[in-house]
Structures are given as structure tokens and as C-alpha cells.
Specification:
Elements lengths: L6 H5 L50 H11 L2 H7 L1 E4 H4 L4 H5 L4 E4 L10 H15 L9 E4 L17 H7 L2 H17 L4 E2 L23 H7 L2 H6 L16 E5 L9 H7 L15 E4 L1 H9 L2 H6 L5 E4 L3 E4 L8 E2 L4 H11 L5 E2 L22 H10 L4 E2 L4 H13 L5 H17 L19 H14 L1 E5 L11 E5 L6 H5 L19 H8 L4 E5 L11 E7 L32 H13 L2 E7 L15 E6 L6 H7 L43
Helix pairs in contact: 2-17, 7-18, 8-18, 18-22, 20-22
Length: 682
């Protein structure tokens, strides 16, 4: 997803929704395709439908089933299918799913059952499904989640490197395997739909979502669109009903990685409390010609749609301002019929459905109510008529439905547009097999955090490491070395996992099971003598090799923008001002250790390039580790030569912040390390 998760959702305890209630499906009580106790299940006749209703016959083609079901639906039922609410809005009273006729429910970042376990997730989704199946036509709901680097909301799931690290691997096969492993873990917990992958082409590393991009080059991002195939399977839409596949989402269409940095906002933010500061680049305006827009930002969607047949697409929060007609009249992507209907659906031939981002249409300017931040009739009809099919209305589902029904009745939204949207949504549900197997059995919960998936993640970490500098062949290190390990990111699994992990913005500290980089060093270099001192306050043996692990603390959209607001409700380390240079305390540890030891290795754990000062040339080896996720031992594997360094920069590494934005192909291109740079050790 890309949505800004409501602050209340992040700070307030989640309603308890992980316990099964009478009449709900619970693990161990319901077999696939069977009914939860006390509930109806598709396959039995719906009232008024007749026992031979075509949409309930799995032998019929999907197109016939969709047409039959659509013909039986009231306008209220159709609008319900176009509505998606957040888990927290229905968890305390799941009957709202039936009352609102919801087509879908989602979890925002950090929105989990009270007991954040695989079993609790499965019980919750099955309970919600029972409510959807209690409605007149028994149309199952879809559950969606942001599993952007593994099933990251779920404690105990495998957390893979973020996309920036996967881009460094240059390995589409590996990316496809990671997509499949993610699909296995997500579907095992009852969830059918993943709001991933992000196919943004990040052109300015001041953007707080840079790590969600595979890189700055559209050709690289286009190759990594194979992540869609990993999630959905190679034969999609056939095979989407398998228990190891989920519906994928290509996001954020389009141009989210090309928004212009707002220097005036950055200056205005200075001195203000965090809650009064504004984003400096996220959700901004992409100022571009149509030709450059298609070349840079639309390009990755072409293989996602035409080769991998992605099932859903999510528009960007950002706006586009075409230079052909003069700058100053931007259009919100959620309001652009030209791009959603004209380009995406008609020219590119996208046959799936379009899901809005988190309250995305709320940001459409209403000429009649310019100060209104919520829903208005204008915003609703503009979004629907632009071509959005399902609307992520986390906390305002009933209001959205009320407004849309009124717009239909007034003739401002044609029924043909409604029928097109619902037809697309129902098609996906039939393809997912939800009418035959609406509930998920607990027999695949062992997929979550499995040894096989963790081994795959460790391989990905090792392949993502980029060796920027290696003077005197400092790396690989000898396993029997004397090591002085310093830096705050050496033993902090939350920092190495980054944002969209357990919570929306992520968190520093021991937030998930896995292996830190320090633990990986201890595992791989069993014969080493290791001194660990995060702040380098412990005495330093001059004969030791220094390994200093520094970098960023977690952040997600908006709050990761350089010059933007700090995350005031996050952990204390996250409340630092975001920067493209190391934090002063990090730089001080680098300076102290590298001045005291014979050989010094600096490992940077970050979502984007970080400029490390080294005027005296004391850093012997410099490694870009990106955000490795739960398997930090993969970093140790390359430091000690178990695996070679093979990663290559997916982003240009600037020589100074003043160079940003800097991208391969620029006229004045003099970075510290160019795009594609990466030394090898074998």
C-alpha cells in the first residue's frame, strides 16, 4: 500500500480480533471449501438465485459466472464490492462486513490481531470471511496486506531485504523466488492479496520511500517486475487459486519516484514541531513531459501487465504536471482518467482492477470545497469516473458508499462504469478460487518463517551486499581475526529490517525473530576474538580489525523524507532528522575506531546511499548493506568470504548531498560511486 496509516491506528491498541467466535471458521475446525459452523457457503443456493445459479457452478467459465452474478446484484451490493475497509474498523464488530457488504478488508502497517501469531491471523481472516458469506449472495471478501519484503506485519515471518537490496543483486530469478516464498507465507495465514511489488523508479534519494524501489534505472526495475510472477505464478491468472499464490499489486502508478523536492517546504519545516511539518517530496508533484514520464515511470508496468499479468494496480498519491501545457496545473493520479483509464486500461490493456491507495481520493482537490480534507461527492465521482474500481476507505466505508450511491442516482456516475468495476473485482475473486474455497485451513502455517525461506533470505542478503571500496584486499576477513565490532546497527534487528516491519514506520530494537549482523559474525567467525561496543567506548586493541556498522534507523513514507517531519511517536532513535550523510554520532564512531585500528571496515545499513566522511583515508573497506531484513548473517557470509561480493549499486552513490538528485546519464555525472559499481572478491 502506500497509504499514510492513521496516527490513531498506530498509537492505539488494536482491538482484539484474533479469537474465533461461534459460527466463525477457526484453524483445525474447517477444511478447505467447507463451511464454518453455522454459516452458509457458496455452492448452496442464494435466496432468489435458484439452485442452478450459474455463478455457483465451478464448471462454468469465469466470464459466465461473473456475468450471472452481476445480473443478480443490487446497486448497493455492487457499491459494497467496490469498498475496502480496514481491519480495525470491523474487528470489534465483524458483522459490519455483512452490513456494509464489503468487497474487501485490509490491514494497514502495524494493524494486527491482538495476538500477532500465524494462528491468530488465520482465525481473524476466516472469521471475517464468515461474515461476508452470510450476505444474500454469499460473495466472499478478499483480505489485503502490505507484504512488501515478506509478511512483515506478522512477527515470526521471514523478512527479506527491501527492494533496494534486491535491485543490487541484479538477479530476477532470486526476486521471483522471494515473491513465491512471500506468497506462501501470506496465503498460509488466510490472506489472498498483497499490495506489492512497488515498481517505482526512484530518481531522488531524499525521498523517504527510496528503499521500496529496485533502482533508479527503469530497465532494472522492469527486469525486477518478475516479482509479480513470483507472487501470482507463471500461468496467472490460471493457478491463482493455489494455496501458495496471492494476487499481486503493481504500485504506485505512476511517477511516485519522480516527484520534485520542495525546498521551500524543507525551509519552512525548520524549527517547527514534527506534527506541524510537511512532507518534502513524498506525495508531491512529478513535473515532466509525457515522453519522459512514459520512458522513466511507466516502463516497468509494461512487463508487469503484458508478461506477468498483474491482477491489481494501485495509483500513486502523487500528482503529474505535464510540461507540454506549462507548469502549474498538476493533476492527482487518483483523479486522472487520462492515465488510469486511457493509458493503463485502454492502451496497456490492463484487465485486472484498480485499487485506490489509503484514502487516496480524499486528496483530490474539490473546487467547491478546497479546504475539505475528507470525502465529498466531487471526490468520489472523480475517482470512480477516472477508472478506480475499489476504494481503500479504511475508516469511512459507509460514508463513501452513501456518497457513491447518491452520485449514481443523480446520474453523475454511469452504471456502466460501476458494472465494469465490479466485473473486474468479481473476476479476481473467481480466479482466486474464493467461491469454492473461501476459508483457509491451518495445514500450511509451517510455511511462516520456515528454514527454507530463511535460507533464501540469507542468500538474498549476501547477494545484495555492494563492496564500494576494498583497499589492500581488506575483505574478505579471516574467521580467526581479532575483531572490534562497533556501531549502533551491528546488533539492532529493527534497524536492519527498516520500515514496513511489524509496524508502518518500523522500529528500532528487538522487534522480530532473526539474526543481527553481530550474531551472524559470531556464527560465521567462530574462531574470532570479538569485542562489541556500540559507541566505541570500550578499549580498542590497535591490532584488531575494526568492523563499524552504522547507518539509518527505520522510516517509511513521508517521515523518511530528508528535511521532512520526524516520527514523533516512533522509538527514540527514529526521531532523528533524516539525512544523506551519516548521523554525527555514527560518524564519530567511524572516526574513532578507524583511527585506532590497523584495518577498518565500515558497513552502512540504510535504505539509500549515505555519505561517509573519510578525509584521512582511514576506511579500508566500505560496504553498502542496504536493509537486509531478518537474516543479518548474510552480511557476515560475504565479510568472511563464505560467499563472494557480487552486488552492484542500484542507485548512484553521491559524493555530496548537493549533487542530489543524481542519476546515471546525467550530463554532469561525478558521483563518489557510479550506478552499477560493485567490487568483487572472487
Amino acid at each position: 500500500m502506500g497509504g499514510v496509516v492513521a496516527l490513531a491506528l498506530l498509537t492505539a491498541p488494536s482491538p482484539a480480533s484474533g479469537t474465533a467466535t461461534p459460527g466463525s471458521a477457526a484453524p483445525g475446525t474447517t477444511a478447505p471449501g467447507s463451511a464454518a459452523p453455522g454459516t452458509a457457503v457458496p455452492g448452496s443456493a442464494a435466496p432468489g438465485a435458484g439452485s442452478a445459479a450459474a455463478y455457483l457452478d465451478p464448471r462454468r467459465p469465469v466470464e459466465q459466472r461473473v456475468a450471472d452474478l452481476l445480473s443478480r446484484m443490487t446497486v448497493e451490493e455492487k457499491v459494497g464490492q467496490m469498498t475496502q475497509a480496514e481491519r480495525a474498523a470491523v474487528a470489534d464488530d465483524p458483522t459490519r462486513i455483512a452490513a456494509w457488504r464489503l468487497g474487501s478488508v485490509l490491514s494497514g502497517g502495524g494493524s494486527t490481531p491482538a495476538e500477532n501469531t500465524p494462528e491468530a491471523w488465520l482465525r481473524m481472516v476466516n472469521e471475517f470471511q464468515a461474515q461476508a458469506l452470510s450476505t444474500r449472495l454469499k460473495i466472499p471478501m478478499m483480505y489485503g496486506i502490505d507484504a512488501v519484503h515478506g509478511h512483515g506485519n506478522l512477527r515470526g515471518a521471514t523478512v527479506f531485504p527491501h527492494n533496494t537490496g534486491l535491485g543490487a543483486t541484479r538477479d530476477p530469478r532470486l526476486v521471483e523466488e522471494i515473491g513465491h516464498a512471500t506468497a506462501r507465507e501470506v496465503r498460509a495465514t488466510g490472506i489472498h492479496w498483497n499490495f506489492a511489488p512497488c515498481l517505482c523508479v526512484s530518481r531522488d534519494e531524499r525521498w523517504g520511500r527510496s528503499y521500496e524501489s529496485f533502482g533508479e534505472d527503469p530497465a532494472l526495475v522492469s527486469r525486477m517486475a518478475v516479482a509479480v510472477r513470483g507472487l501470482q505464478g507463471r500461468t496467472a491468472p490460471a493457478g491463482l487459486d493455489r494455496p501458495d499464490r496471492v494476487l499481486a499489486t503493481a504500485k504506485h502508478f505512476a511517477g511516485d519516484g519522480g516527484t520534485r523536492y520542495d525546498t521551500a517546504v524543507a525551509e519552512a519545516n525548520r524549527g517547527k514541531p514534527w506534527w506541524e511539518q510537511r512532507y518534502t517530496i513524498d506525495q508531491g508533484v512529478t513535473v515532466t513531459s509525457r515522453a519522459d514520464f512514459y520512458r522513466l515511470h511507466v516502463a516497468p508496468y509494461v512487463p508487469a501487465i503484458k508478461e506477468h499479468r498483474v491482477g491489481t494496480v494501485m495509483p500513486s498519491f502523487s500528482s503529474v504536471d505535464w510540461t507540454e501545457d506549462g507548469v502549474g496545473n498538476p493533476v492527482k493520479m487518483h483523479a486522472s482518467r487520462e492515465l488510469i483509464t486511457g493509458l493503463l486500461k485502454e492502451r496497456l490493456g490492463f484487465r485486472g482492477f484498480v485499487i485506490s491507495d489509503w484514502e487516496g481520493i480524499h486528496q483530490i482537490p474539490d473546487p467547491a470545497a478546497p479546504g475539505e480534507a475528507g470525502l465529498t461527492p466531487y471526490k468520489v465521482r472523480t475517482g470512480v469516473n477516472a477508472g478506480i474500481d475499489m476504494f481503500m476507505e479504511p475508516n469511512t466505508a459507509p460514508r463513501f458508499q452513501e456518497l457513491l450511491l447518491a452520485e449514481i442516482a443523480a446520474g453523475r456516475v454511469p452504471m456502466a462504469r460501476i458494472d465494469d468495476a465490479v466485473q473486474r473485482i468479481l473476476t479476481a475473486k473467481f480466479q482466486l478460487g474464493l467461491f469454492e474455497r473461501p476459508y483457509t485451513a491451518p495445514d500450511r502455517l509451517g510455511e511462516v518463517g520456515s528454514a527454507r525461506h530463511r535460507a533464501l533470505a540469507r542468500e538474498a542478503v549476501a547477494k545484495s551486499q555492494v563492496l564500494l571500496k576494498n583497499a589492500g584486499r581488506t575483505l574478505p576477513l579471516k574467521p580467526a581475526s581479532s575483531l572490534y565490532v562497533a556501531g549502533r546497527n551491528a546488533d539492532d534487528i529493527g534497524n536492519q529490517a527498516g520500515g514496513w516491519t511489524i509496524t508502518w514506520q518500523g522500529a528500532s530494537g528487538d522487534i522480530l525473530p532473526g539474526t543481527t549482523i553481530l550474531a551472524g559474525i559470531r556464527e560465521v567467525a567462530k574462531g574470532a576474538t570479538i569485542t562489541h561496543s556500540p559507541d566505541a567506548s570500550a578499549p580498542i586493541d590497535p591490532g584488531a580489525t575494526g568492523v563499524v556498522v552504522v547507518g539509518e534507523t527505520p522510516y517509511a513514507e513521508g517521515y523518511g523524507d530528508v528535511g521532512g517531519p520526524e516520527c514523533g511517536w516512533c522509538t527514540a532513535p527514529q526521531q532523528e532528522e533524516k539525512s544523506l550523510t551519516l548521523q554525527p554520532a555514527d560518524q564519530a564512531v567511524v572516526d574513532k575506531v578507524c583511527a585506532a585500528v590497523t584495518r577498518c571496515v565500515v558497513v552502512v545499513v540504510s535504505g539509500r546511499p549515505q555519505i561517509v566522511a573519510d578525509p584521512a583515508g582511514r576506511i579500508d573497506a566500505l560496504v553498502a548493506a542496504w536493509l537486509p531484513g531478518s537474516e543479518g548473517a548474510g552480511v557476515a557470509d560475504v565479510l568472511f568470504g563464505r560467499r563472494p561480493f557480487t552486488g552492484r549499486l542500484p542507485f548512484t552513490w553521491p559524493a555530496s548531498p548537493a549533487q542530489v538528485p543524481i542519476n546515471v546519464g546525467d550530463r554532469d555525472y561525478r558521483p563518489a560511486y557510479p550506478y552499477g559499481w560493485g567490487l568483487r572478491t572472487r
